[in-house]
Input
Amino acid sequence: MIVDTALAGLTLQPGKLARLRLRAGTRLRGLRGTTWLTIDGLACDKLLEPGDEWVLGRSACLLACALHADGQAELAVDEPGPAPRRRRPAWWRRWALRRGGWQAVAA
Output
């Protein structure tokens, strides 16, 4: 499953794993039911109840599943926006203009 949005609601079924590739800073929030989460390569697992939140410290591939066989779990996935683009300092712009124009060195 590919979710290409900053904020998504994900309904998880018991016994069915969902694989999520998430960036650092992504906030996961339990909305309904109990969600089991694990990161490939780490020994610790997380359980999210409704209202619980977990923010990823690094980009990771997660496995998620509804924990209880009698119901579904719902998870909110809130990815951070793109990093703000930094403006070049004024001295760089002056230097670029002297070297032949902005277009010559902007790329």
Observations:
- The longest helix spans residues 90-98.
